[in-house]
Amino acid sequence: MSSERYDVIVVGAGPSGTAAALALARAGLRTVLVEKAVLPRHKTCGGGVTHKAAQALPFSLAPVIERTLYNVNYSRQTGHAYVVRSQTPLVYMVQRSRFDYYLAEQAARAGAELRDGTAVTTVAFDRHGAMVQTAHGPLHAEYVIGADGATGRVARSVGLMDDRWALPAVESEVAVEPATMAYWQDKIGLDLGTVPAAYGWVFPKADHLNIGVVGAPLGADFGSRLKAYDARHTAARVPGITRVIRRRGYLLPCRRPGAAVQHGRVLLVGDAAGLVEAFSGEGIYWAIRSGQLAAEAIIQENVPGYSQALDALLMPNLLSARRWWGLYKLCPYLCYALPKYLPPFWGMVCQVVRGERHFTDIRRGLGPLGFVESLLPDPLLQLA
Question: What is the C-alpha to C-alpha distance for residues 59 and 105, in angstroms, rounded to an integer?
Fold first, then answer.
């Protein structure tokens, strides 16, 4: 097959790739969005879209939102649960298969060419720019955006992100008895304090529950401890399981400060760039924003400006979140109890989740005591 030329090749049709392709197509650049799977496809993910992630997109997510949640059920060591409520929406529940496909459709409507079922094998360079070899033949472009996830082909092809940290997670989608589904239909669950620097979640979808655990691999035999925690957490928090729809293990990638996210005309975004908020495991917002920033850099013909924008606009909050995660590691009971007993703290949590306040704002809000953040341990540094 003869090669084809574009202005930009975007590899990966998740939130980061579709956000980039949408912005590029709207700016009039000839853009192709390449996805190895046939869409819609399953994606292992909790499927919680925060309010700030929804607001970062230039269109409504209403067609794919299955639940809008205001309530959080906190538990400690899989018991001692209580519920707190936000006055405004915290999280929108989606199925990633429908969500990602919907985003890809928006990019295609804006003018991006969508090629699903097209696996990328290598990325190389010639005198004209970048060449992406796919299962259906080569594609050429001036720029390539790698949005193909934590173990993506683009980063490996150009030698990037081989030193990123990874947080192991175990996730299940389960069908449950009506009483269990009715209880969880209007709330998410967060379990704290069972394993250091780890937590469990329960997310309700339209007709099933998503339940899982994630944490920093600290100490010996972490994998076995995480699996044991997953079993205990599932049994305690979600009784009445009638069927396990699917169960997966996966990794949440975290960028080391200063790690390169571009090589020449190749830019990495989203999970491919390690842009996951380690404290909460949330990656969709950071994926969308990094895709938009990469597109802006290409549109403005200022590719080096992408790394600078990433470090100025996104990384300070991701790094700050990791230090406050260190507080959770040191004082899990405090993080569990404060939303219940200190309403201003719960209000601050709601503002951070919604994007009305950032983790960096917490330090500024503490005034003279803000230096405490710099004393908190970053759990990821213990993995070095």
Answer: 12
Dihedral Cα 298, 300, 302, 307, nearest 10 deg: -60
Quote the tokens at residue 290: 């990094």
- Residue pointed to by tokens 């429908």: 98
Instruction: Count the domains in the chain.
Output: 2
Q: Give me the count of residues in the chain.
A: 384
Question: For residue 291, what is the domain's CATH number?
Answer: 3.50.50.60
* Cα–Cα distance, 321 to 102 (Å, whole number): 30
Contact in structure between 271 and 291 (CB atoms under 8 Å): no
Query: With the CA atoms of 6, 8, 12 and 13 taken in that order, what torsion angle do they form, in degrees rounded to the nearest 10?
Result: -90
What radius of gyration do the chain's Cα atoms show?
A: 21
Domain boundary among 198, 231, 251: 251
Residues 186-234 pLDDT 10s: 999 999 999 999 999 999 999 999 999 999 999 889 999 999 999 999 9
Q: How far apart are the C-alpha atoms of 215 and 315, rounded to whole Å?
A: 20
State the Cα–Cα distance between residues 289 and 306, nearest whole angstrom.
11
Answer with the one of 251, 282, 300 that is the final residue of a domain.
251
What CATH number is attached to the domain comprising 235?
3.30.9.10
What is residue 366's DSSP assignment? T
For residues 62 and 38, state if they share a domain: yes
The span from the CA of 21 to the CA of 2, in Å, is: 23
Give ∠ CA 63-64-66 in degrees, rounded to 5. 115
With 0.85 as the threshold, say if the pTM is over it.
Answer: yes
SS (H, E, C) 140-183: EEEEEEECCCCCCHHHHHCCCCCCCEEEEEEEEEEEECHHHHHH
110 and 236 in a single domain? The answer is: no
Give the residue numbers spanning the domain of 306. 1-66+92-162+252-384
Distances (CA, A) of 2 to 5, 18, 225, 306: 10, 26, 52, 32
Give the span between the Cα atoms of 22 and 16, in whole angstroms.
10
Q: What pLDDT sits at residue 24?
A: 98
Do 345 and 222 fall within a single domain?
A: no
